[in-house]
Amino acid sequence: MLNVPFAIIGGITALHITGYEFQYFGRNRFIALFGICIQNNVILLSRFKKNLHERIHLDDAIRQGVIARIRPVVMTALMAAIGLMPAATSTGIGSETSRPLAIVVIGALLPLLY
Q: How many CB atoms lie within 10 A of CB 67?
């Protein structure tokens, strides 16, 4: 759950860097962002729980869980960021609402990938 505050910071920073204000559309997108963050946490925690039920020591359970589930977590975040790139770079009609939404998600997910 510690990645949620980092996602908030990343999203607000991305809006600030690109020159957008923290408006309704940007705030609205944080709900979807929280869903992605929580989904990634559930993927990891379910593996940790399974490892602990197999009587693996806590340190090893966490280490093995991260090794086993890092690819699905990174793929989820990366596909959301890549999928929103066209919306973040669009300049056509309606882009005034879709661009801040995409910038929030991309700006929040990219730091989480490191």
A: 10
Which pair of tokens denotes residue 101?
A: 């939404």
CA-based diameter of the chain, in Å?
57
Q: How many helices (H) and strands (E) does the chain have?
A: 5, 0
First to last CA, the chain: 16
Helix (H) or strand (E) holding 43: helix 24-53
CA dihedral 91, 93, 95, 96 (to 10 degrees): 110
Structure tokens at 27: 């705030």
Task: Please check whether residue 6 is in contact with residue 112, taking contact to mean a CB–CB distance below 8 angstroms.
Answer: yes
pLDDT digits (tens, 9 = 90+) for 78-107: 888 899 899 888 888 878 778 888 888 888
Q: Quickly count: other Cβ atoms within 10 Å of residue 49's Cβ.
A: 12
Are 4 and 37 in contact by the 8 Å Cβ rule? The answer is: yes
Whether residue 44 contacts residue 65, with contact meaning beta carbons closer than 8 Å, is answered with: yes
